[in-house]
Amino acid sequence: MDNDVPGLPARRAALRLLDAVLRRGETLDQAAHNAMQGLADPADRALVRAIAAEVLRWLTDLDALIDSATRQRLPDDAKPRAVLRLMLAQWLRLDTPPHAVIATGLPLLAGGPRRLAHGVFSTLVKRQAALPGVPSLPPAVAARWGERAGPIAWALAVPPPLDLTLRDPAGTALWAGRLGGVSLLPGHLRLPRGQAVETLPGFAEGAWWVQDLAAGIPARLLGAGEGARVLDLCAAPGGKTLQLAAAGWQVTALDISARRLERLRENLTRTGLRAEVVAADALAWEPAGPFDAVLLDAPCTATGTCRRHPDVLHRIGPRRIAEMAELQARLLDRALGWVKPGGRLVYAVCSLEREEGEAQAARLALTPEPIGLPGFPAMPEGWLRTDPGMVDGGMDGFFIAAWRIGDIPPGPSASTP
Fold first, then answer.
1. What region does 375 belong to: left with phi over 0, alpha with psi -120 to 50, or beta?
2. Measured between alpha carbons, how far is 142 from 350 in angstroms, rounded to an integer?
3. pLDDT reported for residue 110
């Protein structure tokens, strides 16, 4: 019987996961819990995520292959197309033998057009079909990203490595040797993907935490704190809070999500670092007094994380971008009023959209503080943008801008209409 086929439950879960992303607009993380109900084996759960992620990275090209082997185009939401996407991703990206793909794929169409799916898949196998060297971005996404689309697509071809930030940058060479990693900046290590983080040397004693190379740049810009007060606004899950605390800042970490702040508290305990943790809505909260610096890593569409979260390629559109840009503008206006005269404001988003990055920085009637970081040249305006294809192994796409606040504390009136 179909239910006895080894590996079939994992494929059913992958199909549910993709349906939640592509039809209901959920993130991979949001949909994973319900989609994987009943899968206890970590290896099965990892397989589900791997299948879903490869389908989402290569969806445009997988669909092109399917269309090349059908007389009449299957509707985008047709179940045979969904199943064929899974089957082709396993064969072409995960090196699953065709006979195993068929054995675990066709039962997903119980009571449906198995012969159609079998015929399309077998035709493509006989043709020795192949995917291009680089994924094709969805047309709407490629149009938004313009000339940057090509390098970004190159970065999508391979899942990302594991980046770590060290509690003590002085130990970079030591930890690179112990962990077998490479360093792209002091205090950063890059390791091959697929390692169990909790089992690596240094995890238990809190010598490092997982943080993408680009995600670590905004806090670096503030340098040593020497006891000065900094507000980490929208702080969870906490990588920047840990960086700032390790650099000697007196940190107030604020986030609207009490649940996500629990992870921050756990990492503070593990690393032995200290911060004041506040669960509050930044649009309603008021501090007791201004800060020497404010770091606003604003909520965003997160399209810059497309290497690790390829669902953003298919979930994010103009409406969501506009919603996030409106929220970011409101947060920036509030953050400006919380910086002491002479203090600094750093704004960052892990988004590749101009509306969330360049347009937000240009909206402020303030002169940017040019960002100078070795290997990461600033834009002519003094801002910094990272793209997923910038370095070997890739990095998240971030927009970052910094300002030194003048003698008159700015408020909403400091921004242009």
1. left
2. 18
3. 83
CA–CA distance, 84 with 265 (Å, rounded to integer)? 43
pLDDT at residue number 374: 83
Taking phi over 0 as left and psi of -120 to 50 as alpha, with beta for the rest, 120 belongs to alpha
Give 103's contacts (C-beta < 8 A, 6+ positions apart): 5, 7
Nearest one of 229, 375, 358, 377 to 291, comparing CA atoms: 229
Q: Find the catalytic residue in 234, 300, 306, 350.
A: 350
C-alpha to C-alpha distance for 240 and 346, rounded to whole angstroms: 12
Q: Which domains does the chain have, with CATH numbers?
A: 2-126 (1.10.940.10), 161-211 (3.30.70), 215-414 (3.40.50.150)
**DSSP per-residue letters across 145-168:** HGGGHHHHHHHHTS---EEEEES-
pLDDT for res 415: 40
Helix segments in 107-148, DSSP class H: 114-126, 139-145
Q: How far apart are CA 394 and CA 134, in angstroms?
A: 14
Mean pLDDT by 10 residues, the chain (417 residues): 76 96 94 92 94 97 97 92 98 97 94 90 97 96 94 91 97 96 96 90 96 97 96 96 98 96 96 97 96 98 96 96 98 96 97 97 92 87 93 94 74 40
Give the predicted TM-score (pTM) of the model. Answer: 0.92
The answer to whether the CB of 310 falls within 8 A of the CB of 156 is yes
Does the annotation mark 306 as catalytic?
no
Reading the block at residue 282, the tokens are 């930044």
Cα 141 from Cα 149, distance rounded (Å): 8
Fill in the amino acid letter for 66. I
Q: Which residues contact 369 (CB under 8 A, 6 or more apart)?
A: 344, 382, 402, 403, 404
Q: What is the pLDDT, as a whole number, of residue 4?
A: 67
Alpha carbon of 94 to those of 36, 51, 90, 289, 301: distances in Å? Answer: 20, 8, 5, 54, 28
- How far is C-alpha 288 from the geometric centre of its chain's CA atoms? 33
Distances in whole angstroms, Cα of residue 183 to Cα of each of 112, 200, 280, 292, 337: 52, 17, 36, 30, 37
CB-CB contact of 62 with 135 (8 Å): no
